[in-house]
């Protein structure tokens, strides 16, 4: 019963290898709306930790037994720094009705315990981690999760002001919106390391996020003819017969800065941090991937199915063998079979049919068969001697 758990624990502890992330995607959004910020981290933006860094991390949590116990399962090769760019990788394009819906949501008021403390909008930090799968666990190539934060009244008002564009220099600060430590499990799930993040002395390990909406306005000169339109730059002029006019193109994207601590060496001060820490669970070696690739549940199913198949193969014929071959007293059965052969020779078909029905009934009724074949004590018949 304990074999799958013990086997998986030994494999991941003794023979496990680091399951390094290949790509990390982070995104920010208001719940129910499209993403406002997206960043993809690959290549040089993913860095494995050094041994000295891991030692410093353990020293920072020396007073937190829960965090120490959690970190004891890993070594420096399981921790990866993910650098997040300041500016979003994608242009923020939103229709005017959707922008107005966001403003309306941020304008609402939600009461908790008869106190108005929020507008009821949730800010979502979503993360997805892609690992290098083997041929047996492609299902778990991606691990994803999210952290949700209920916006306060002040945060709702600041967010609303940014969306309304009252000033180009406005920004919104969201407190404790991003967890710095994320654990990537060997399944399709990733989650924040609550054992580290929620300790009293480590509240600064949740990053405070500052968002601002950037704009770039470009004025384009366009030459338009009866059949075509194209852009021109510099001192170029339109051809004869073409009409020149200007168009304005505006691009919007979000930028962010995070304020927090990666290692709690100095909880009294904050630093500008542009990194996330991914703690990745070890995976089994490639040679054992066919056995460990489906996790503990898959191993349990394999053991149960295999054991069940062999157990069934061993015992499925024993009942029939005992029922039909281990009768204690077969005299009446033999007599019935002899009677069937006899009436068949005499061509008494009706009687043969009745006797065959009786034989079939005996084999279909175990209770009757046991009663008929029951071993009875031997009672010799006493001959009466007639006296003259």
TrEMBL record:
- Is Phosphoprotein among this UniProt entry's keywords? no
Q: What species was this sequence derived from?
A: Oikopleura dioica (Tunicate)
Q: Where is the signal peptide?
A: 1-16
Q: What is this protein called?
A: Piezo non-specific cation channel cap domain-containing protein
Q: Which residues form a coiled coil?
A: none
* Keywords tagged on the record: Membrane, Signal, Transmembrane, Transmembrane helix
Chain segments annotated as transmembrane:
288-307
Q: Name one GO molecular function term.
A: mechanosensitive monoatomic ion channel activity
